[in-house]
Specification:
The protein is an alpha+beta fold. It has 2 domains: 3-171 and 289-371, Zn peptidases (Aminopeptidase, 3-Layer(aba) Sandwich), CATH 3.40.630; 174-286, Alpha-Beta Plaits. The chain contains 10 helices and 17 strands. Strands 1-2-4-3-5-17-6-16 form an 8-stranded mixed sheet, sandwiched between helices. Strands 8, 10, 12, 13 and 14 form a 5-stranded antiparallel sheet that branches. The longest helix is centred in the C-terminal third of the chain and has 21 residues, at 254-274. The two termini are 22 Å apart. It binds ligand L5K734KM. Residues 94, 128-129, 154, 175, 177, 248, 285, 287, 319-321, 345 line the site of ligand L5K734KM. Residues 94, 128-129, 154, 175, 177, 248, 285, 287, 319-321, 345 line the site of the ligand CC(=O)N[C@@H](CCC[C@H](N)C(=O)O)C(=O)O. Keywords: Amino-acid biosynthesis, Diaminopimelate biosynthesis, Hydrolase, Lysine biosynthesis, Manganese, Metal-binding.
Length: 372
């Protein structure tokens, strides 16, 4: 598939972002494309909104897996692209349109030039939440075709096109979502003494949360607590009866998440007393760290050795990925693909350079051939 064909696919997918487990149009488009290239050696299964495609090997001894995530984010796009999202308030702001396109490009090459082993392409829903990897891993559809090793990629806005990056060991953090619902007493803006103001309680809570990492966690550990969304009240001249905070906790060590959760629970108890309110805590989806096996990172570098792609050693990142659950059970690795965007992941202005689609297809295809 040449760059023009890859771009056309990416742009179509970019226009129809869908949230986790709602990837109906995305799934239908992917299935059409897969069926266009299907031959006798290609088997297809669907699982919820995801798709598994197996290319039969010539003399198979094992199965090599490549996973691409397929969901978008609830972010309103501000790129100004002629092919911007037509789904209001939703965007491929994490590059999953790139991941899917690269998987289709590599699939075409593997169908045209099959290898000895089976190759499994995994189009996985709900990476941004609530998490598709773990239930997919447990599904009969996946278990029947379970790969012996697997890998995945993620676009990296800060890296130039033509560059890939990874590292042995921990690449992505442990994560937990965080949702806090505050309930107090609302009332007229002019009579604060008769109310329990949840805008004030939730605002204080956000400020104090920052001290959990700054003063409650060993400085030699790494942790992040971010509140990305805050909602309270209904109108400018009424005191808010309720407030909601939505955020995420990230740590490099799995055990540190439990420490932070315990401190948040204690803080909430204190706030219930000091602000005379109730606070319900929900930790939503939790993702296990992405931990790369050294052997596979070395094989990846070998696979790229006589290519034009530059390999760069990565540092661990506080991003999360439910692919971590797959790597917990199946050996493999994940890598970053440079896409050179001035705006980062989860930005409404993310503009990855489409030239990286070709680098991605080349890196994935070479790696699959080398792993066989
Ligand atoms: C690569 C990336 O950006 N992944 C997401 C994963 C989200 C996990 C979950 N919804 C959470 O926020 O904890 C990320 O935000 O890192």
């Amino acid at each position: 598939m040449n760059l023009a064909a890859l771009k056309e696919i990416r742009r179509t997918l970019h226009q129809i972002p869908e949230l986790g487990f709602q990837e109906v149009k995305t799934g239908a488009f992917l299935l059409d494309k897969i069926k266009e290239m299907q031959t006798d050696s290609v088997e297809i299964k669907t699982w919820r909104t995801g798709i598994l495609v197996r290319v039969t090997g010539k003399k198979p001894e094992k199965t090599i897996g490549f996973r691409a995530d397929i969901d978008g984010l609830p972010i309103a796009e501000e790129t100004g692209f002629s092919f911007a999202s037509v789904h209001q308030g939703k965007m491929h702001a994490c590059g999953h349109d790139f991941h899917m396109t690269i998987a289709l490009g590599a699939l075409k090459q593997l169908i045209e030039n099959p290898i000895d082993d089976h190759v499994l392409f995994i189009f996985q829903p709900a990476e941004e939440g609530p998490g598709g990897a773990l239930p997919l891993l447990r599904s009969s559809e996946f278990l029947e075709w379970k790969p012996n090793c697997l890998f995945a990629l993620h676009i990296a806005p800060e890296l130039p096109v033509g560059t890939v990056s990874s590292r042995p060991g921990l690449l992505f953090a442990n994560t937990s979502e965080l949702f806090l619902d505050f309930k107090g007493v609302g009332g007229h803006a002019a009579y604060p003494h008769l109310t329990k103001d949840m805008t004030v309680a939730a605002s204080n809570f956000v400020i104090q949360l920052q001290q959990i990492v700054a003063r409650g966690i060993d400085p030699l550990e790494s942790a992040v607590v971010t509140i990305g969304k805050m909602e309270s009240g209904v109108v400018q001249n009424a005191i808010a009866e309720t407030a909601r905070l939505e955020g995420t906790i990230r740590t490099l060590h799995a055990a540190t998440i439990a420490v932070i959760k315990q401190k948040i629970a204690m803080m909430a108890k204190g706030f219930e007393i000091s602000h005379d309110c109730s606070i319900a805590i929900d930790y939503g989806s939790n993702y296990y760290q992405v931990y790369n096996q050294e052997k596979y990172v070395n094989l990846f570098q070998d696979a790229l050795r006589d290519s034009s792609i530059t390999y760069k050693e990565a540092s661990p990142a506080m991003t999360g990925e439910d692919f971590g659950y797959m790597l917990k059970e199946i050996p493999g690795f994940m890598f970053w693909l440079g896409v050179d965007s001035p705006h980062g992941l989860h930005s409404a202005q993310l503009k990855p350079d489409e030239a990286a689609l070709e680098t991605g297809v080349q890196a994935v295809t070479r790696t699959i051939r080398h792993l066989s």
